[in-house]
Amino acid sequence: MAATPAAADTTTMYPLHIASVAYDAASRLNTLDICLPRPVEQSAPSAVWVIYIHGGAWRDPLITSASFTPTLTHLLQHPVHSALIAGTASVNYRLSAYSTHGTHPSAPGDFARNASHPAHVSDVRAALRWLRGKYGVGVHRRFVLVGHSCGATLGAQVVFDDEEEEEGDEVGRPVALVGVAGIYDLLGLVHRHEGVPAYREFVEAAFGAEEGAWREASPVEMAGTGSPLRVVVLAHKLQGGHDELWERGVEVARAVGVALERVVT
């Protein structure tokens, strides 16, 4: 007797949100939040993944993958942009030391919160490798890489890294990079804000005290390396304060929408 076909799963509700998925065992912060607008097989072949990297000066424990939620809400509510998205992932990564944080100071022995460059970039690459293996992101599915503040820095560092990938270490290449209020010149940032010690503090926490290292890690010094991108959206001077951009999500969603409309054909 012929086998009875398995019944389709009609119990899962979409959009499907999957929180705190571990992509690497390096630390408790190596997780990502996934959203599938619909079953993966029902997305159009041209639909892309949107991968978000949060900001927070590489060290703020209160700015996490959840900061993408307002932007995601706007994207899913948009009648055109939602159809162009096959899935989204918001990436957490290890943080740099922040022993003076008002409510959640880092401890010296906390591996998850004493990271320095290039650990943050390595974590983002590890997340992309996990998504590549799990959902074919960068293989069967193209993706747009989005970052706010230092998240935009990390996205640019991943994109402009011209080192050859070893077999098994491939992360794929985004079809677009969207940077919102990004930091692309670390040395210039600190020098422009010499009267505000916090800028030097968080850059030194992430990159060390040597200014030469800041220059080498700055996307403005790396730009032009690697293969070209189809679309780059660098959003500055937007409506709202620095943190208000991700808190409201409207401007971030608009910038992502520009990239989606240009790459999904």
UniProtKB/TrEMBL annotation:
Top-level taxonomic group: Eukaryota
Record SUPFAM superfamilies: alpha/beta-Hydrolases
Keywords: Hydrolase
InterPro entries, A to Z: AB_hydrolase_fold (IPR029058), BD-FAE-like_dom (IPR049492), GDXG_lipolytic_enzyme (IPR050300)
Pfam families: BD-FAE (PF20434)
An annotated Gene Ontology molecular function: hydrolase activity
Official protein name in the record: BD-FAE-like domain-containing protein
Segments forming domain BD-FAE-like: 32-220
